């Protein structure tokens, strides 16, 4: 029998989920491994949320559901739009998903082509694509790298450009496997590498373990709860 | 840790670097076809062809010897043509005995062999110059414009992008092995040949698995940005009057070469 945890209540302003609503999301991998056991959460515009939990807690699996790359059982609404196969293109332009390894994210020969990939596939006009590429590269301060070849960049440079590749799509929610400060005040769901980063950058924290959300609330309160942190293999910052 | 072993592009700001990649690709291919069509022993035309290579090198700022120094890699391939030395009937030039066979070199065979070597040697030089003055993504764009099927250009583009990632992966695997290939004092390091072969085999398998998983992640990253089976690109190239002028000049030169070679 899997141990089920009740989501602990932490003091956080109620959020109606105008950006993202997930209801009862279940998912298991083809090999039978159960990754998500009924996830429910709301995200509102301006929310900056750290998603923390031990390895294998289901963080990445949850992230891959948000734009329909993985399909589980449950409901996902983005900006009031129910995720289904028919509106995947729309959904994907609303969710900016940045993968952990920038070499997976940057698959085009040049930086320009990579940042233009999303807007081009959204069907925007050439002039609009160019404007978006410039402003996305401007936002991560990499505009001078426009004509560079991706494989000649350092890891740090690649990470910035990986973020630009989704910023150019103008998403309403950014989902990152790695945090980056100084971006637009849109909703962000981020899985940081350590809890100290969560403390510094994200007012709200969601703790996942074994496919469940075990806590959701104010970062400063969650990170004070030593019992909770130890129970889920997290370090006190 | 970067491996740039495959990149043959040399950054400069020369007339040839600035030339539209489509023009460069078309001229290079036309030049190579023209070389192949030149009759045997058209020495004047061969001289002109080499002059063409020298002129192009001069326009590229890479130095006149640049393509020459790199052209020797083709010689082993030209040796494939060595059989024409003996197989074309003509006046015997020399004879020799090898194991149980007699070989007769004919004058017609010698003429053809030398012509083939010169043709391929000059053609390879223009190809070397082409990749030295054109960035790889621009080459791919040029091919897209020349109606090369998208599936081919896409495969080549991905191959180019991930060849570097893969070779970095190989370097990491080799380093991991090296740093654990220790030996106790007074002991010989490593096991027998079979054991070593198995380690190498495992590494190749690792590389395959990692690449396979990576391809999955890349595909996800493409899906996440709206990929639906059709790869779209923006092409920043524009043909200017200067590009057309170079193209016309090059084609006139190639025509003159053919004329000299045939009459």
User: What's the average pLDDT of chain A?
Assistant: 83
Strand order of the largest sheet of chain B: 1-2
Major pleated sheet of chain B: 2 strands, antiparallel
SSE order of chain A: EEEEHEEHEHHHHEEHEEHH
In the sheet with the most strands of chain A, the strands line up as 1-11-10-4-9-8-7
Q: Count of DSSP E strands of chain A? A: 11
**What's the total helix number of chain B?**
11
Biggest pleated-sheet summary of chain A: 7 strands, mixed
Helical/strand content category of chain B: mainly alpha
Total beta strand runs of chain B:
2
Helix run count of chain A:
9
Taking the alpha carbons of the first and last residues of chain B, their distance comes to: 56 Å
Termini separation of chain A: 32 Å
List the uncertain runs of chain A: none
Assign the structural class of chain A, choosing from mainly alpha, mainly beta, alpha/beta, alpha+beta, or little secondary structure.
Answer: alpha/beta
- General form of chain B: flat
What are the SSEs and their pairings?
The complex is a heterodimer of chains A (237) and B (263).
Chain A: E1 8-9, E2 20-28, E3 34-43, E4 48-52, H1 59-65, E5 73-78, E6 81-82, H2 88-94, E7 95-98, H3 102-105, H4 111-121, H5 126-139, H6 155-167, E8 173-176, E9 187-190, H7 195-201, E10 204-209, E11 212-218, H8 219-222, H9 226-231
Parallel strand pairs in A: 1-11, 4-9, 4-10, 7-8, 8-9
Antiparallel strand pairs in A: 2-3, 2-5, 5-6, 10-11
Chain B: H1 15-18, H2 21-37, H3 43-60, H4 66-70, H5 75-78, H6 84-87, E1 92-98, E2 101-106, H7 107-133, H8 136-145, H9 150-180, H10 193-224, H11 241-262
Antiparallel strand pairs in B: 1-2
Helix pairs in contact in B: 2-7, 2-8, 2-11, 3-7, 3-11, 8-9
